[in-house]
Amino acid sequence: MLLRGDDPDLRGDQFGQAYVTTVLPGVVKAWHCHQAQWDRMVGMVGRTLLVLVDGRAQSSTRGQVVEHVLGDRHPSLVLIPPGVWHGLKAIGASESMVLNLTTTPYNLQDPDEVRAPPHGPPAAGLAAYDWAREDG
Predict the structure, then answer these.
(1) Is the CB of residue 27 less than 8 Å from the CB of residue 74?
(2) What integer pLDDT is reported at residue 74 of this predicted model?
(3) CATH number at residue 79
(4) Which of 9, 46, 110, 119 is the most buried (most CB within 10 A)?
């Protein structure tokens, strides 16, 4: 089970859209965060490093980094709240695929996202992340 509409912990009553993104080996897709939208990500194919950096000003975990390895061998759903920066990197020798079940649909005229370059800090006051991680 990935998501049920009656599960308040997964914000299942809020469905915006579902999309799949792919990541080529060694490619970093980062950084971005949302002001209102929650992302719910699960790895479908290959292995993907999902890195979260808490950028919420009033959060007790501001600045903390959390790493998750998503993939077909770890079928877990990760909830990403608004204000938490996140990025993806395929790990291993093959392309990876991630499903995202968002709480709001994408609005081309007024996108709910802030972006930052992948190899620097996602925002002022936050540390840069070293995407050179290698798994053995």
Answers:
(1) no
(2) 74
(3) 2.60.120.10
(4) 46
